[in-house]
Amino acid sequence: MVLTAHDASRRTREICALAPIIPVIVIDDAATARPLAEALVAGGLPALEVTLRTRAALEAIRAMAQVPGGVVGAGTLVTPADVIAAKEAGAQFGVSPGATDELLAACEAAELPLLPGAATATEAMRLLARGYDMLKFFPAEASGGAPALRAIGAPLPQITFCPTGGVSPANARDYLALPNVICAGGSWVAPADRIAAGDWAAIELLAREAAQLEGHA
Hints:
The chain is built from ten helices and nine strands. By secondary structure, the chain is an alpha/beta fold. The strands form two sheets. The chain has a six-stranded parallel beta sheet, with helices on both faces. It has a three-stranded parallel beta sheet with strand order 6-7-8. GO terms for molecular function: 2-dehydro-3-deoxy-phosphogluconate aldolase activity.
């Protein structure tokens, strides 16, 4: 069975709606994965994106997939091989910095809901033409930030976004206030120094604060 683009977007939209922030996580030591996921979920951030940027990423996804209440996804999907590996590790959704026909086809064939990246109106329109209407706006700040995403939303109101890349506590509310934004991706809720120190209480507090974020105009 092949997952349709419409069904993929419906599922990723449901995941994005779980909390205002999706943690973008870089794991260097898989042993930290489960307690990190437990802290983030306890803080109110159940959707977790583990980037495939380290050797420990797939093992981390396997560990996080066992945490009750968590919905674990694989980020930085670039090739069909990434998709297969992520699915086998237990990822429930995928996130990509951009989108190629090969990557989209691989996710559809693997029945892995994908949040594909787009930074321009043309990229967003190409994905919409294929059936994807829940997208990642990346790199958000480098691509013009909230004003750019607001401008894209004017002629393309049927597309919703999760902006990622440069999103921080200082600007997250600007993105969340946009009518075409459901949530945002941020790495500040899982800082490397707190992970290395095993300071799960501090990470849970960061997650709790992020879970309360609301947009402002």
